[in-house]
Amino acid sequence: MSIPLLSYFPSSRNHRVSGYEILSDEQPKIYTTEYLQSSLEMDALIKAAYRQIFHEQQMLDSNRQICLESQLRTGQITTRDFIRGLAISDPFRRLNYESNNNYRFVQICIQRLLGREVYNEGEKLAWSIVLASKGLHRFIDDLVDSEEYMSNFGYNTVPYQRRRILQGRSLGELPFARIARYGEDYRDKLPLTLTKKQVEPLNLQTFLRSSDRDVVLLLLASTLALIVLFSLLTAYGYFPKFGGY
Fold this sequence. Notes:
The longest helix is centred in the C-terminal third of the chain and has 23 residues. Helices cover about 45% and strands about 0% of the residues. The chain is elongated, with a radius of gyration of 29 Å. The chain contains eleven helices and no strands. Helix 1 packs parallel to helix 3. It starts with about 40 loop residues before the first helix and ends in a 10-residue tail after the last helix.
């Protein structure tokens, strides 16, 4: 028996407030199948769906779901079903679910499927329990079938980040596509890169202090010894001279 979704209290967020702004670059472009006029518009909608679910850094040809695309083009599935299929696909599972803990994955899915940031840690905990008890597919189903998803995007609209506009500010909220995919616990396991303090100019002084200088000197000495040996053997006639017969 699965544990029901725990109750949590939605906090005051920008997307929950009605806005009366003039359209600008901060406003998201809405892609829907309700008013499609040509195949080019369907291509743009499919691309927007991939960008919403996978983001730019994961939009690879190897991650395309050709079967889902064909079903959407022929009207066998709705845009909501297409979004559901992308979220439970093997590439999305591998790139997002397997490389994060449940709390971080819940945050990613709420951002990409519901178009908003998580309200608080209570919401993370509630949905993490659903993910752990029901599994990935049922977790995605609960999000896509939720009243919040249906009231904002319905069957035909690609999810988008809702109301990035912030009153009194020239720039809105940070786009979710620019937020790191990995959580801190997974990021700390990645190989460390050189910092500015660790990078030194390449010259004779730094080379002589380098821990690899003994290996390099040994290779140079071995190469020089081989050249001398080859020259001696050639001089004594063991090898023909260059250009001779």
